[in-house]
Every structure is written in structure tokens, then in C-alpha cells.
Write a structure and sequence with these properties.
binds FE2/S2 (inorganic) cluster, 2Fe-2S, alpha+beta, iron-sulfur, 2 domains, DNA polymerase, domain 1, 2 iron, 2 sulfur cluster binding
Length: 168
């Protein structure tokens, strides 16, 4: 069995107990994906699995068999930055940067969820055709990604800017 990681087919680990996080970091040396709590509480390990955000510490590598994994290393097209990467720089959306790969992967999936009309806990009107973008929506939808440095305001501003540009 094989996994596609950032467009390249790689072998699954022989040991079915290996997490996707460990396989990415230890097996494939893609260390952009970070280990935080290693138990599903911080979001540092967030990657995309078939375009949806998952916590790679709680996902077995074998669960990604035959599927597409995107990590922070593969998010941008070509040599340029992904719009979220540029916006995080512009808005000081990080300090130590440890949470940043997970934040950006989560944000890219979250913007798609928003565009697809998936409601959140704070969506006031579930019947509305288009969910109104607000910082409250972004905070709620990004609440699974913790930043120990307190860069949350910059993170929200960066995501808000990219979401606004997408909607324009
Ligand atoms: S390392 Fe996976 S959620 Fe914290
Ligand atoms: S920038 Fe340091 S944990 Fe978020």
C-alpha cells in the first residue's frame, strides 16, 4: 500500500501502529509538521487528508493508504508562498512559529469548509445561503489550534484577510 504525500507516492510503514505524524516526521523527514501534545489537544500536528484537516497524531499512517496527504511543505504551488503563509507574515501571525504549520494547514481547510457553507457553533443563521465571515467565526473554527505565544490576534487577522480576498 502507498500514500501520496505532497504529490509523491511513498510507502506506508510496515508497523500498522505508527501514527501519520511519526511517519511524516521520522519516516519521511517532513519535519514541518510539529509534535505538540501528541494526544489531540493542540493542533500543532494538523495536516490535510484528501483536503480535510486531521490531527496526524491521532491518525494512523495506514489510514492514509491510497489517499492524499498535504503537509505545510506541499501547501504552496511552486516556489511561491501560499496566500495564508504570506498573510501570516504580514500580520505577525506567529512568534516562535511552532504552531504555525498546523495553524496554516487548519486554516486552509477551514476556508474551504466556510466556502462550502459548513456551519460552526457560532453561526447565527443556519439557513443563510452564505455564512457571514466574522472574526468570531474564525476564532471558533480555529479553536482546535492553540498558540502558546499569544499570536492569536495576528492569526485571526491573517485568515480574515485571505478569506475576504477569496470572497471578493
Ligand atoms: S500534537 Fe496532535 S493535537 Fe497536539
Ligand atoms: S507562534 Fe509560538 S506557539 Fe504559536
Amino acid at each position: 500500500m502507498a500514500i501520496r504525500v505532497n504529490g509523491t507516492e511513498v510507502a506506508s510503514p510496515d508497523d500498522a501502529r505508527v501514527s501519520l505524524l511519526d511517519h511524516l516526521r521520522e519516516g519521511l523527514h517532513l519535519t514541518g509538521t510539529k509534535v505538540g501534545c501528541n494526544q489531540g489537544a493542540c493542533g500543532a500536528c494538523t495536516v490535510l487528508l484528501d483536503g480535510q484537516r486531521v490531527l496526524s497524531c491521532l491518525t494512523l499512517a495506514v489510514q492514509a493508504d491510497g489517499r492524499e496527504v498535504t503537509t505545510i511543505e506541499g501547501l504552496a504551488e511552486g516556489d511561491g508562498l501560499h496566500p495564508l503563509q504570506g498573510a501570516f507574515i504580514e500580520h505577525d501571525g506567529f512568534q516562535c512559529g511552532y504552531c504555525t504549520p498546523g495553524q496554516i494547514c487548519a486554516a486552509s481547510a477551514m476556508l474551504r469548509e466556510l466556502a462550502e457553507g459548513v456551519p460552526s457553533y457560532v453561526t447565527a443563521d443556519l439557513a443563510q445561503e452564505r455564512i457571514l465571515l466574522s472574526r468570531e467565526e474564525i476564532r471558533e473554527r480555529m479553536s482546535g489550534n492553540l498558540c502558546r505565544c499569544g499570536a492569536h490576534n495576528g492569526i485571526v487577522d491573517a485568515i480574515f484577510q485571505v478569506a475576504t480576498e477569496k470572497a471578493a
